Amino acid sequence: MALNFDTINLVDFVVKQGNGVKGLIDSGLSKVPDVYIQPIDRRISKTNNIDAAKIVSLPLIDISQLDGPEHDQVEKALVKAAETVGFFHVVNHGLTIQVIEELKDATRQFFNLPPDKKLVYQKGITSSSLVVYGTSIEQEWRDYLIMIYNSDDDAYKYWPDQCK
After folding, report:
1. What phi and psi, each to the nearest 5 degrees, are found at residue 46?
2. Cα gap 150→129, rounded to integer Å
3. Which of 10, 15, 64, 145 lies 20 to 30 angstroms, CA to CA, from 77?
4. Beta strand pairing status for 60-62 and 89-91?
5. What are phi and psi of 133, to 5 degrees?
6. What is the pLDDT of residues 58-77, one digit of tens each?
């Protein structure tokens, strides 16, 4: 039976119980809660389309140049892309397809954990600033996991087992 989020406390279910947005989906959600619905004027439609030129001109950043004489130019390109477009396409990062697939698998494993196992990493609960799990109560609904790498020792001490 699908939960009706008009009659229960959405913030309690999503945030405090650690279910996250994934928990909403897994609950058999029959209706998207109003807080997650984009206003009509912000939705993509035939009259409000994404500019195709912006998609084609997605900034391409060659990360391999960060270790060379072009470091400052690459750094400026990263900042400009983040400020103007909000994201960019990274190439020559050195990650193999295998590593990328393992990363995706580790991420799936983490987000498939029971809520109580994810909650220990929630901001305000976790004792570490190196790992933070959270969710959003806004139209761009998402769950997120932030992991900061300082050293192998810190990673093994603080990161979730699924992500090591």
Report:
1. -60, -30
2. 11
3. 145
4. parallel
5. -105, 140
6. 899 999 999 899 999 999 99
CB 21 within 8 A of CB 142: yes
Tokens 């030129």 label which residue? 53
Give just the sign of the alpha carbon dihedral 142, 148, 94, 163: negative
User: Nearest Cα to 5, choosing from 28, 144, 22?
Assistant: 28
Q: Which residue has the tokens 């009706």?
A: 4
**Spatial separation of the C-alpha atoms in residues 156 and 164, rounded to whole Å:** 7
Q: Alpha-carbon dihedral of residues 77, 80, 86, 87, nearest 10 degrees?
A: 0
Which of 21-25, 63-67, 132-136, 138-142 is predicted least confidently?
A: 138-142
Domain edges within the chain: 1-37+95-164, 38-94
The enclosing H or E element of 134 equals strand 131-135
